Amino acid sequence: MVALCWTQGAAGLPTNTSNADIRGCGLAKTSAHVHHAVRARICIERGRYWQAEYWISDALLTALRAAIDGLLQEASDLQESVAKVEPRLREMMQR
Questions:
Q1: Using N-to-C axis directions, what is the helix angle for 31-45 and 49-94, rounded to 10°?
Q2: For the chain, which residues make up each domain, given as ranges?
């Protein structure tokens, strides 16, 4: 995985990464995601914002899917824990 970080410059546009004021950071799973991020940065530097959005939209959707899958997994784990604890709690309350 490759870390992609950027800072916010004038007019809210990304600038070169520095240690100060990092606004966003993402992880690229494949070289295709890195390629898309590089292409998007070039488009932004050239003022082609719609084209930049095209390049990064797939990576953003992939990240959103991963986040949702993680939340669903956590919810599933929580339901399993509740199913294990609930009978014990009911038993304790009846005593």
A1: 130
A2: 2-70
Does the global pTM surpass 0.70? no
What's the whole-number mean pLDDT along residues 18-22? Answer: 40
Q: Which residues contact 55 (CB under 8 A, 6 or more apart)?
A: 36, 37, 39, 40, 43
Write out the two tokens for 18. Answer: 């520095």
Q: How far apart are CA 33 and CA 37, in angstroms?
A: 6
Q: Which residues contact 14 (CB under 8 A, 6 or more apart)?
A: 6, 7, 8, 23, 41, 44
Sign of the CA dihedral running 64, 65, 68, 70: negative
pLDDT at 41 over 80: yes
* 3-class state of residue 27 by DSSP: strand
Q: Among 37, 81, 75, 31, which residue's Cα sits nearest to residue 58?
A: 37
Sequence-separated (6 or more) residues with CB below 8 Å from residue 71: none
